[in-house]
Amino acid sequence: MPTIQCSCGCAAFEEEHKIVICCVCNKPTKYTCADLTASEVRKTKTKVGLSWSCTICNQMGNDINSLKAIIISLKNDILELKNRDSPIVNNFGFEDIIQEINEREKRKSNVIIYNIPECLASSSSDRSKEDKLVVDKALQYVLSLHSETEKD
Ligand SMILES: [Zn+2]
Ligand SMILES: [Zn+2]
């Protein structure tokens, strides 16, 4: 029997008919883990328009919905502030705010390292190479400190 990696994380030997495929990520889930009966699984395979999505994708859908709700409530707050004729909000459009939120989201896992002298190389690829070296050195230093404390 082939081994499958179930989307819930359990590895199991399963026959193909006992697996349901997520319509979003295409990953397999054992129908027992999906809390589905064999006949329900059969329906998702045979009936057009009937699909099943895994917990992870459902969660993602929920996250998107709650983000939507947050954006709508932000929008309403902004409109309300605008109606109050607040000078701050008038200079700061809704789109600017959305852009700022997106920018922050993009940078949320960035690491900022201070006190590194500006690299003088003229090409941007040289600059990024040199910056990488500096970061490498710094990380190696931190890792060496870590392994020293582990020895103790
Ligand atoms: Zn499972
Ligand atoms: Zn999925």
Report on this structure.
- With 152 residues, the chain is mostly helical.
- The protein folds into 3 domains: 3-53; 57-106, no CATH class; 111-152.
- It has 5 helices and 4 strands.
- The strands form 2 sheets. The chain has a two-stranded antiparallel sheet with strand order 1-2.
- The longest helix is centred in the middle third of the chain and has 29 residues, at 55-83.
- It is flat and about 65 Å long.
- The model has no long low-confidence stretch (mean pLDDT 82).
- One zinc ion (ZN) binds next to loops.
- This is Zinc finger PHD-type domain-containing protein.
Largest sheet: 2 strands, antiparallel
Q: What is the N-to-C order of secondary-structure elements (H for helix, E for strand)? A: EEEEHHHHH
The tally of strands reads 4
Structural class: mainly alpha
Strand order of the biggest β-sheet? 1-2
Provide the β-strand percentage band: 5-15%
Span between N and C termini?
49 Å
Bound molecules: zinc ion
Q: What is the overall silhouette?
A: flat
Number of domains: 3
Arithmetic mean pLDDT:
82
Helix amount:
40-55%
Summarize the structure.
By secondary structure, the protein is mainly alpha-helical. It is 55% helix and 8% strand.
Which tags fit this structure?
3 domains, single chain, binds zinc ion, flat, mainly alpha, 4 strands, about 150 residues, 5 helices, two-stranded antiparallel sheet
Q: Layout of SSEs?
A:
Layout: E1 3-5, E2 11-13, E3 19-21, E4 28-30, H1 38-46, H2 55-83, H3 87-90, H4 94-106, H5 124-151
Antiparallel strand pairs: 1-2, 3-4
The structure holds zinc ion (2 copies).
